[in-house]
Amino acid sequence: MANSQFDYVKSFESMDSCLPNCWIVVRIDGNNFHKFSSKHNFKKPNDDRALGLMTRAARSVMELFNDVVLSYGQSDEYSFVFKKGTKTYNRRSSKLSSVVVSQFTSSYVYHWKEYFPDLQLGYPPAFDSRTVLYPSDKNLRDYLSWRQADCELGTLSSDKNEILFSQFGINYNNLPQLHRKGTVIVRDKVTYASRNALRKEPDDKRSKAQSMLLALNIDIIGKQFWEGNPHILAA
Ligand code: DGT
Ligand code: MG
Ligand code: MG
Ligand code: MG
Ligand code: MG
Question: Where does Mg(2+) 1 bind (predicted)?
Fold first, then answer.
């Protein structure tokens, strides 16, 4: 073989498979969105167009990866939870985090015009990503609680609250749930195929097994959400 004398360099690539039987979370976060949000005049502290675009990009990731059982987003970040037993890319950490963030970023740019019809994208945005493993359901729930508490804290933080009170006279308790709770996307048990059958519509290009995606602005810290959706942790 012509290349055999060079083949050995392949062994320098490190194997980075995620530990078996752990929840795999890939979190993406806007790179220097302090600058990006002011360059594009995002409304402070929450811009509904920007949040909508983030959720649109997250949906695109969940359409690509059926093994993502839940995603949670707020501000310039989104976390994607792969089921414990996922075999996607042989659980290779860098492959998972890089394809997730690449799909997310291209989708963010691709759909920009739908959310900002009157504003041209000023420069190409970037997102970072990391893979984190959580061995127990409690660890995973605590992780997601941490992110949602960060959302509430961020919206509540003294200077932002000051702005809200002094400039707009609005109370935190009256803010939309989107701003207070962030967005959780889950898969409904109704699949596209069965919905289409119900509506007597032909199947579209989406895979028959693919479930409907529901974006919710609700509390995921308390047990109500988890008890109402036991299939998520059972995945
Ligand atoms: P990083 O992540 O270390 O590259 O730096 P940043 O600047 O992205 O910092 P980060 O991720 O800790 O904080 C998110 C920034 O994005 C923060 O400056 C506020 C801004 N941002 C996110 N969502 C909105 C929004 O809806 N409206 C406005 N005005 N700003 C937002
Ligand atoms: Mg950061
Ligand atoms: Mg950021
Ligand atoms: Mg952030
Ligand atoms: Mg290749």
Answer: 29-30, 76
Question: Among all chains, which residue has been given the structure tokens 């893979």?
Answer: 131
Q: Give the SS3 label for residue 156.
A: helix
| Residue whose structure tokens are 């600058």 | 35
Q: How many angstroms separate the alpha carbon of residue 130 from the centre of ligand 5? A: 21
Query: Distance from the CA of 97 to the center of ligand 3, in angstroms?
Result: 16
Distance, CA of 181 to CA of 232 (rounded, Å): 19
Binding site annotation covers 46?
Answer: no
pTM score of the predicted model: 0.90
Complex ipTM value: 0.97
* Ligand 1 pocket test, candidate residues 28, 31, 34, most atoms within 8 A of CB: 34
Per-domain residue ranges for the chain? 15-233
User: According to the annotation, is 30 in a ligand binding site?
Assistant: yes
Closest-CA residue to 76 (of 28, 122, 12): 28
The structure tokens listed for 116 are 């900002």
Ligand 1 pocket residue status of 155, Cβ below 6 Å: no
End-to-end CA distance of the chain: 45
Q: Is 6 annotated as a binding residue?
A: no
- The strand ranges marked E within the chain are 23-30, 68-74, 77-82, 127-134, 183-191, 211-216
Tell me, in angstroms, the distance from the centre of ligand 3 to residue 127's CA: 8
Residues of the chain with pLDDT under 70: 1-2, 158-173, 190-193, 195, 203-210
CATH code linked to domain 15-233: 3.30.70.3000
Q: Is the dihedral of CA 194, 197, 199, 204 positive or negative?
A: positive
